[in-house]
Write a structure and sequence with these properties.
Largest sheet: none
Oligomer: single chain
Helix content: 55-70%
Shape: elongated
Distance between the termini: 27 Å
Number of helices: 2
């Protein structure tokens, strides 16, 4: 659903399958310390991605003066579209990088 972030099948060029979050068959052969390091790196990447996503969509979609405790319909629709576009672009870029990586091997 979230492209290369959670799927594990799509990974940036030059990176091994992440340990613990949907990695491949080679995971059983990885050193436990390497698995932990890969899982920590993936967690940092996911955390960073969500922080950037939240900041981007907040600035783009939410009215800065809070007149109501609930999101307006326009804010809600904008946020939904912003998140969907962000994940679509993330997936497209991951797929393109994977194809380029395979072509260079």
């Amino acid at each position: 659903m979230f492209g290369g972030v959670f799927g594990g099948s799509q990974k940036p060029a030059g990176q091994a399958a992440p340990g613990g979050m949907g990695g491949g068959m080679g995971q059983a052969q990885m050193d436990p310390n390497a698995q932990l390091a890969a899982a920590e790196q993936e967690m940092e990447m996911v955390t960073d991605m969500f922080a950037r996503l939240g900041d981007l969509c907040y600035k783009k979609c939410l009215i800065q003066r809070y007149s109501d405790e609930e999101l307006t319909k326009a804010e809600s629709v904008c946020t939904d579209r912003c998140v969907a576009k962000y994940f679509q672009v993330n997936r497209d870029v991951s797929e393109k990088l994977a194809k380029l990586s395979q072509a260079n091997q």
